Amino acid sequence: MIFKAVGDGKPYPEHRLSSGDWARIPPRQVRLDQLISTKRELDLQSLLAKDSTFYGDLFPHVVQWRGDLYLEDGLHRALRAALQQRQVLHARVLDLDAIDL
User: Fold this and answer.
1) Among 18, 24, 71, 83, which residue's beta carbon has the most beta carbons within 10 A?
2) Within the chain, which residues score under 50 in pLDDT?
3) Which pLDDT value is given to residue 55?
């Protein structure tokens, strides 16, 4: 099993972080088997593209909500890590449990 679960959508409240806001969150290691994907499907072409990790943030975006870690953005990076038999990846984690929304 790669992820803890595969979800369909974001069960947490809207956070409205911009790309710049995400960039200010320092990356940390996250175990793949603790992540819940918020997407059920992935475009295989984007996973296999040589430049699929070239554009955008270098680190996946993860949202911590009610003790769970949701992979919001960067599914292709997480799957590449799994295909390389890595158990962890570096991601930016927004802790909504610590924020009063």
Assistant:
1) 71
2) none
3) 57
* 63/32 Cα distance (integer angstroms): 14
Q: How is domain 1-9+21-42+56-100 classified at the CATH fold level? A: 3.90.1530
Determine contact, residues 63/15, Cβ cutoff 8 Å.
Answer: yes
Burial 18-32 (b: 16+ CB within 10 A, else e): eeeebeebeeeebeb
Q: What is the pTM of this model?
A: 0.87
DSSP code of residue 45: H
d(CA 8, CA 12): 12
Predicted pLDDT at 5? 94
Looking up tokens 């911009």 gives: 18
- In the chain, what are the domain boundaries? 1-9+21-42+56-100
